[in-house]
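By convention, each integer encodes one residue's backbone shape. The lines below illustrate.
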Amino acid sequence: MENIINFEEARNKRNSNLSTEDIFNLFLIFKNCEQPLAAFDLNILMESLAKYKEMDRFAFLYRNLIITRNANGKDIIDLNCCLNKHVQNKTIIINPLNQSEIMLIGTDTEFNQLKKLYDEKTLLLFSDLMFFITMDFKYGVNNWSLFAEDEYLKYPKYPGIVTGEFIGQEKTPKVMQKVRKIAIDELRNL
């Protein structure tokens, strides 16, 4: 028997006209799935998000977002306006000594409620974007794409931890088969 569609629920999902707050919510949802009580640097996130605005594959996510420049002249998507709501809801906490360092403290239930606000297409697209953002956190913005981006294009869902093993190796079919095997094993573990 087919699932019955609840039109009211489908209408309320934010699948178009994503705002800056929606992008921040999506990031929090996926960051929480990646690691409970995860900490991240807001400045890197804002710069990383701005970097991928021009990629055609993410045009749907970025359609309504505005790129600004920070004090250093780097393009960013300003997420500071989204922080207060999440601090009040106790889903995040800001380090008082370093305002750009944020830690997730919300429960899985709260993040699952947030996740229900978005349709499947949006969630899948943002999960692809999270690969790029995660690599930026791990290696720094613009520091990783030379050795990992081409592997990502062939095997889009494998975690970034696989790529470090293959730096400097020629991408022969045997090496790529090993990459694929490790990627599948890592995805099963996740």
About this structure: The chain has a mean pLDDT of 77. The radius of gyration is 18 Å.
